[in-house]
Design a protein that fits this description.
By secondary structure, this protein is α/β, with parallel strands linked by helices. The protein contains 14 helices and 14 strands. Strand 13 and strand 14 form a beta hairpin.
């Protein structure tokens, strides 16, 4: 694995990152294995998480360069984080440099992500522009497994483009990979910035699309959306400019910095998330490295959640769950819910149909609010309906 990775990754100049700072014994800069300028790749034995930077910003949405310099700017803050986990096994593999063409960069991301996933190592990708999510996705999508993807962004990057993939159009390319993509959830769009036809397109495909106003007052509802995801991609423009000034197209509204850290922890604690990407940070626009600090905290919370995964999956341990069956009085509809005794997380069963005949059931994550909607209001949760349509004629 080492020789394959070294073909794509350049080392980290730790002295440049530290700039004279002496890392304390328990800080990340001391505890993680680093692919630095004097050594080969760090020892990967037992490693669970690998950090990768991507120095690419050619297809940005404006004329401001800088996102390519994001990985090292983030490292300056990340290496100062304190380690709290007894089982901390994290390495920093360095940076994927901008390729001769944009497609070369995508290819490198795809290969590195796939190599790590095959070795059961979770990559944390520090971009670079948001279109790099496509390379992250392709790293998942060619092993015969269907992928569930979650994207956070203040806009929906679904513009049609005949040119190479760009930050405002990469979703079109990704969503047309239906042989690899099973479910897609878009979170945090701001309605006044989005053409309603884009929302309609996602809904017609029975994908999940949640505006900022729906989830900002109840960020905990993000957790069941992420729980079944395999990859999570976070555009920093989804955070309000006050908390993340180092973004090209930041706006006064968005998730708060504390929301972003909670979301990152939800992604980390999910038993299914296998890669986490953070994109669209421009250090040239940052103020006192505030955005770099926030991203480093998001990475810290993802890692903290990762090493506290509960592995409470209903299909693996039925005895660890409580069952609730909701019978609708106004019709003959029934929904079965299960609740983990260990984590209090909820799931609900959705039938799988082929040619109109039910051939089985799938458990999908949900919230207590979904159970209340069914049990108290006798309404079918929207999450159930979208899953039902996805499971028709699988």
């Amino acid at each position: 694995m080492h020789s394959l990775l070294q073909d794509f990754l350049s080392p980290v100049n730790v002295d440049l990152i530290a700039n004279g700072y002496e890392y304390l014994p328990n800080q990340w800069g001391t505890r993680i294995g680093i692919h630095n300028s004097t050594e080969e790749l760090p020892d990967m034995l037992g490693v669970k998480i690998a950090i990768i930077g991507v120095e690419e910003d050619r297809k940005r949405t404006d004329d401001l360069p800088g996102c390519a310099h994001a990985p090292n700017a983030i490292r300056r803050q990340l290496y100062k984080m304190q380690v709290w986990q007894d089982n901390f096994k994290v390495v920093d593999l360095g940076n994927i440099k901008s390729g001769e063409s944009q497609s070369d960069t995508f290819f490198a991301i795809e290969k590195v992500v796939r190599i790590l996933l095959n070795d059961k190592i979770t990559p944390i990708i520090l971009g670079g522009t948001h279109d790099l999510s496509y390379g992250q996705f392709m790293g998942h999508g060619k092993d015969g497994r269907l992928v569930n993807a979650v994207v956070f962004d203040e806009t929906i990057d679904l513009f049609l483009s005949e040119e190479e993939i760009a930050a405002e159009s990469f979703l079109y390319k990704m969503l047309t990979q239906r042989s690899s993509l099973f479910n897609f959830s878009h979170i945090g769009h701001q309605r006044y910035l989005v053409d309603p036809r884009m929302v309609s397109t996602l809904e017609e495909l029975h994908f999940e699309c949640y505006g900022l106003g729906e989830l900002k007052p109840k960020v905990a509802e993000v957790e069941p959306i992420i729980r079944n995801a395999h990859l999570v991609s976070f555009d920093m423009s989804a955070i309000c400019h006050r908390d993340a000034p180092g973004v090209d197209n930041g706006t006064p509204n968005g998730f708060g910095g504390d929301d972003a850290c909670r979301i990152a922890r939800y992604a980390g604690v999910s038993d299914h998330v296998r890669s986490f990407g953070i994109y669209q940070y421009n250090p040239y626009l940052d103020q006192r490295e505030q955005t770099a600090m926030l991203i480093s905290q998001m990475v810290w919370y993802f890692v903290d959640g990762f090493f506290k995964r509960r592995h409470d999956l209903p299909e693996l341990d039925e005895r660890g769950f409580l069952k609730y069956i909701v019978n609708f009085r106004t019709n003959d509809h029934t929904i079965e819910f299960v609740k983990s005794k260990k984590s209090d997380r909820w799931w609900m069963k959705v039938p799988v149909l082929t040619n109109g005949e039910e051939i089985g059931e799938q458990l999908i994550p949900c919230s207590y609010g979904d159970y209340e909607m069914a049990a108290k209001k006798e309404e079918i949760p929207d999450r159930w309906m979208k899953a039902y349509h996805r499971f028709c004629d699988l």
